[in-house]
Amino acid sequence: MPDLLTNRPTAVYARWTMCSSPTGVVEDPSTLFPHDRAELHPSLLAPVGELQMVHSFEHTPVLRDEVVSLFASAPAGVIVDATVGGGGHSAALLDAYAHFSVVGLDRDTVALAAARERLARFGDRVTLVHAPFSSLGDVVPGPVSGVLFDLGVSSPQLDSSERGFSYRLGGTIDMRMDQTSGATAGQLVNELPEGALASLFRENGEGRLSGRIARAVVAARPLTSTTQLSEVVAAAVPAAVRRKGHPARRVFQALRIEVNDELGQLAAGLPLALARLVPGGVCAVISYHSGEDRLAKQVLREAATGGCTCPPDLPCVCGAVIRYRLLFQGARKASAAEVAENHRAESARLRAIVRLDVP
Q1: Which of 79, 232, 279, 311 could serve as 146's disulfide partner, Cβ 3.0–4.6 Å?
Q2: Last residue of a domain, which of 223, 240, 259?
Q3: Is-contact 276 145, C-beta < 8 A?
Q4: CB neighbours (10 Å) of residue 80?
Q5: Closest Cα partner for 258 from 173, 200, 345, 302?
Q6: What is the β-pairing status of strands 126-130 and 277-287?
Q7: How far out from the chain centre does Cα 304 lie?
């Protein structure tokens, strides 16, 4: 595949501890890098556009009550919110359990600024880090009592036309969670060979129409807006397909997954999270599409079996040591009442595991 598909964004991050000020200070992305600027008041650095985006970043945490319940038995200590977003899950956990502190990770600087504002009341119980969760092993010191992954794209990101995540809103074809680095979706759309585009679409659910859509995209280059891309995809597929839902949905999802290396991030980050858990520590994963749910299921199931290769109906003779236990079989889903209030919850799948007290 071309370099565009392998040139992943570099993890660049800085750590800061929440201050207890209730004034809602906003972090500018530039404060995440040069540490010698740390003494400057963030309000002097935050551009107006970002301030507006922060205040509109209202994040409704999916499966909030279920997540809070899962961590009830975890020992006192640090909970890593590996995708802190607007801070909804972190706030719920900190409100429910006084013996927890939170380290929140996110690649989206706007989300981090919103989380800082939302979580300011918890003072030094919160630390935020600008980093992908694949860097969890490097940026989170020592063992932890729990880790939460709330995967995918958030509603505020989808609703911001300038981010380019939505096929319904006009904007630049960006789709990067971390807008400070990495190739944009527009670069993939306009520079990848037709075969590479077709493979990208095929791997993320487009199936037999992948080649047809890729040809149409290449023929329409250069594409500069999400509206253009959406219209090209819609025109490339049969009318019968369009009647089943907007045909650009999966194309946009495929591009977003590729741009942000979402499956690669999960494959790297989830084992790191499991390795950091103390006995009794809990790891929970909320996924929103089949690819990431299959991966989460595979990693958690292998951990719960210790990698045992013996037939399931026979005693283990391969020497596997089981250090984890699934907290429930299968995946939990949002209730009908939650889906009615928050449509995004409809596709959510929750899986969870606990670390056993085994050396």
Answers
A1: 79
A2: 259
A3: no
A4: 29
A5: 200
A6: unpaired
A7: 23
- When divided into structural domains, the chain yields a total of 2
- Separation between Cα atoms, residue 339 and residue 346, nearest integer Å: 5
Q: What is the pLDDT of residues 41-77, one digit of tens each?
A: 332 233 334 444 454 566 689 999 999 999 999 999 9
Residues 59 and 202 in one domain: no
SS3 of residue 310 by DSSP: coil
Tens of pLDDT, residues 141-165: 889 999 999 998 888 888 899 999 9
Q: Which residue has the tokens 């006995």?
A: 279
What is the DSSP secondary-structure string of 18-87? PP--TT-----GGGGS-GGGTTS-GGGT--HHHHHHHHT-----TTHHHHHHHGGGSPSEEEEETT-TTS
Q: Which of 42, 85, 88 is nearest to 65 (CA)?
A: 88
CA distance 109 to 284: 23
**Cα angle 336, 160, 216; round to 5:** 95
**Three-state SS letters, 214-276:** HHHHHHHCCCCEHHHHHHHHHHHCCHHHHCCCCCHHHHHHHHHHHHCCHHHHHHHHHHHHHHH
Q: 26 with 50: CB under 8 angstroms?
A: yes
8 Å CB contact between 105 and 132:
yes
Contacts of 185 (CB under 8 A, 6+ apart): 164, 173, 174, 175, 176, 255, 256, 258, 259
Distance CA 42, CA 26 (A): 6
In sequence order, which residues have a C-beta less than 8 Å from that of residue 197 and are 6 or more positions away?
188, 189, 213, 214, 217, 218
β 77-81/144-150 pair status: parallel
In a domain, 162, yes or no: no
Sign of CA dihedral 141, 147, 152, 157: negative
Checking if the pLDDT of 2 tops 60, the result is no
Domain membership flag for residue 2: no
The set of residues, in sequence order, having a beta carbon less than 8 Å from that of 293 and lying 6+ positions away, is: 287, 331, 349, 351
Q: Which amino acid is at 3?
A: D
